[in-house]
Specification:
Layout: H1 8-18, H2 32-38, H3 51-56, E1 70-71, E2 73-77, E3 80-95, E4 102-118, E5 121-129, H4 132-135, E6 141-151, E7 154-160, E8 166-178, E9 181-190, H5 216-219, E10 228-234, E11 238-245, E12 264-274, E13 277-290, E14 299-314, E15 317-330, E16 333-346, E17 350-362, E18 383-399, E19 402-414, H6 420-423, E20 427-439, E21 441-442, H7 452-464, E22 505-507, E23 522-525, E24 528-531, H8 535-543, H9 545-553
Parallel strand pairs: 22-24
Antiparallel strand pairs: 1-21, 2-3, 3-4, 3-20, 4-5, 5-8, 6-7, 8-9, 9-10, 10-11, 11-12, 12-13, 13-14, 14-15, 15-16, 16-17, 17-18, 18-19, 19-20, 23-24
Helix pairs in contact: 2-9, 8-9
Length: 554
């Protein structure tokens, strides 16, 4: 009823157009002086929008902590910064009990981003796609206690449904409003409204874990919504946003856009008190969110979420954790969910991950009505508290600009006595083995916003003399973009370092030893953030970047 099908040629054009084909290393670009003779210099980005904002961007308009790694490939193409993200698994999953199953398949997504300055603001175009309609068979892969959406005319239960082919086709524009406050508008035919935390495929705390949370439909199931418009105001540590969107769950045809009226609404508040912590509270009314069975009408859902995401990064370690509470209310009845997940990755090589979930699910959610005799006419009122604990490990190795890994995950689900006959036991085990591919990490250090490359450089200063800051000099010749995964500099010791994107930050050598990069005057130019000793130096740079770089380069 709501589906509008698209031609395959259009899908191919979107995939080709949005995926940055130029992520491989390119020829060196002309120097700033040479470029100045050939064409006008590209605009200098206003002070309020620097790379720290890029670091905190999650899915849609959601935020991660400022201290976040970036798993990406990137390249500069004229005024456009092109970025590529992906995460792909080839997995075998086994679950036990009466509802257990085995399946081999692939969970995957790929995303292309094109980013540039426009007028006095910032434009970003995104396209994200998944091949799961072909690589995940049937109604989804085995995941005991998972629930949500429909397949074959019935509710999906004990399986995680595949993602749609178009996961995101969107645009975002933001510009300064007053002082450090900015306004932002975002939306598209496939996008994510301002509701819930960063969606699980994009959370660092869930990155190496191939299996979706069983609480997905209490927190972030709207991350694929076919029709979204979001407006936001934000500052350095806060963000307030609201969305109008189509809140109807996708149908079981996973290869098309399922458009509908933008009659659902949501609001969300973000607060980042430190570089390591991101807090959000959000609420939304999802109009006709869930399809009814048979002749039953669609159901509205009221959703409320509150989450905290904590990232701690050091030279060789990334620790990311998310905890949250979500509540769904429908037909006058509410159910609650708790989520706690974590991921510890050392040297972008060894990842240990874990997740615990506790959620109330109805007999309708779990398709358990025939086995539950205590409630004959209250399909949505008979609620069971169920739990799942899961953990695993993945070992990554270099594969060009990507990382390939081999991993294993173990799980246990626990149900109440009333569901023993449905699942065969109160506790049922599961496991999975998988190989995975993703970009290497481009990670900032947790201390004062420095990158790991900065830490290496400062370590080099200690060996080479306190006065040697030559690598911080602004260079008139812009080097070719470095692919994520290539070390920015050789570490002064034999210890491995996280691969980083080099040369994102340039610091004035006159104050490099004492500068506070969190508060120093700064400006963004040609994909780099320049930090200055004074506002006067920054203003001189903004007035004529090419002349300033040529002068300081000498």
């Amino acid at each position: 009823m709501y589906a509008i099908r698209i031609r395959w040629r259009l899908v191919g054009a979107l995939l080709i157009g949005m995926w940055p084909a130029t992520v491989s290393a390119q020829a060196p670009q002309a120097s700033a002086e040479q470029h100045d003779h050939a064409a006008p210099s590209p605009p200098v980005e206003d002070e309020g929008h620097d790379r720290s904002v890029v670091m905190r961007e999650g899915s849609g308009t959601s935020w991660l902590p400022d201290s976040s790694p970036m798993y990406m490939l990137h390249a500069q193409q004229g005024p456009w910064m092109l970025m590529g993200h992906e995460n792909a698994f080839v997995q075998f999953v086994h679950t036990s009990g009466r509802r257990g199953a085995d399946q081999t398949g692939s969970i995957n997504w790929i995303m292309g981003i094109a980013d540039r300055n426009v007028a006095n603001g910032h434009l970003q175009l995104r396209g994200m796609f998944s091949l799961e309609p072909w690589t995940v068979r049937g109604c989804g892969y085995p995941d005991l206690l998972a629930s949500g959406e429909q397949c074959g005319g019935g509710t999906i239960h004990d399986r995680q449904h595949p993602h749609d082919l178009p996961m995101e086709v969107s645009a975002e524009y933001d510009a300064p409003l007053a002082g450090t406050t900015r306004w932002q508008i975002y939306g598209g035919p496939a996008a994510e409204p301002a509701l819930g935390p960063v969606a699980f495929p994009h959370r660092v705390s869930a990155l190496p874990n191939p299996i979706a949370p069983i609480t997905h439909h209490w927190f972030d199931s709207t991350h694929v919504s076919f029709g979204v418009l979001t407006g936001s105001l934000y500052g350095k540590h806060w963000k307030v946003e609201t969305s109008a969107f189509n809140g109807r769950e996708p149908d079981e045809n996973r290869k098309d856009f399922d458009f509908g009226a933008l009659d659902s609404v949501s609001g969300r508040i973000w607060f980042l008190p430190t570089a390591n912590l991101a807090l959000q509270v959000s609420a939304g009314r999802l109009k006709e969110a869930e399809a009814g069975e048979g002749v039953e009408p669609r159901r509205d859902v009221n959703r409320t979420t509150a989450t905290a995401t904590y990232h701690r990064m050091h030279e060789q370690a990334v620790w990311a954790s998310t905890i949250g509470w979500g509540r769904n209310s429908e037909l006058g009845h509410g159910t609650d969910a708790l989520l706690a997940e974590t991921n510890v990755t050392l040297a972008d090589r060894d990842s240990w991950f874990g997740r615990f979930e506790l959620v109330g699910k109805t007999a309708h959610d779990l398709d358990a009505v025939p086995a539950v005799q205590t409630c004959t006419h209250c399909i949505d009122l008979d609620t069971f508290t169920v739990a799942k604990v899961q953990g695993g490990y993945a070992r990554y190795v270099n594969a060009g600009g990507l990382k390939s890994g081999l991993g294993v995950e173990l799980s246990a689900v626990i149900v109440p006595e009333a569901l023993r006959s449905v699942y065969g036991s109160r506790a049922n085990m599961g496991f999975g083995v998988f190989i995975t591919f993703r970009p290497a990490a481009a990670a900032p250090d947790a201390h004062a916003g420095h990158t790991v490359a900065d830490a290496d450089a400062h370590a080099g200063h200690a060996e080479g003399g306190a006065g040697d800051h030559s690598e911080h000099l602004p260079q008139p010749a812009a080097a070719a973009p470095v692919r994520a995964g290539r070390p920015a500099a050789e570490a002064p010791s034999a210890e491995p370092r996280l691969p980083v994107v080099a040369a994102e930050r340039v610091i004035d050598p006159a104050c490099a030893a004492t500068i506070d990069v969190l508060n120093a005057p700064r400006a963004t130019y040609q994909g780099k953030v320049y930090y200055f000793c004074s506002a006067a130096d920054r203003d001189a740079f903004v007035n004529d970047p090419a002349a300033y770089l040529a002068k300081r380069g000498k």
